[in-house]
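Bumping my old thread because nobody answered last time. Still need a sequence for this structure:
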């Protein structure tokens, strides 16, 4: 997901999206550990999505935009 798409969301929506990213990351790690994951690059993409979401959330909270 692109940063511009994340910035258009509110803090509550970002936190929900972050939760989804983390759940997907756990699922991908499990599939990778059991040798069922074909595309290992998806792990990297999900980790970047988590970092982007956390960055946007932190930016919003530092500016005081909790809405």
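Sorry it took so long. Here it is:
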């Amino acid at each position: 997901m692109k940063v511009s798409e994340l910035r258009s969301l509110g803090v509550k929506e970002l936190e929900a999206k972050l939760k989804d990213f983390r759940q997907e990351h756990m699922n991908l790690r499990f599939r990778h550990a059991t040798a069922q994951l074909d595309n290992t690059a998806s792990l990297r993409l999900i980790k970047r999505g988590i970092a982007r979401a956390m960055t946007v959330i932190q930016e919003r909270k530092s500016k005081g935009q909790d809405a």
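The helical segments are 3-7, 11-33, 41-63. Let me know if any region looks off to you.
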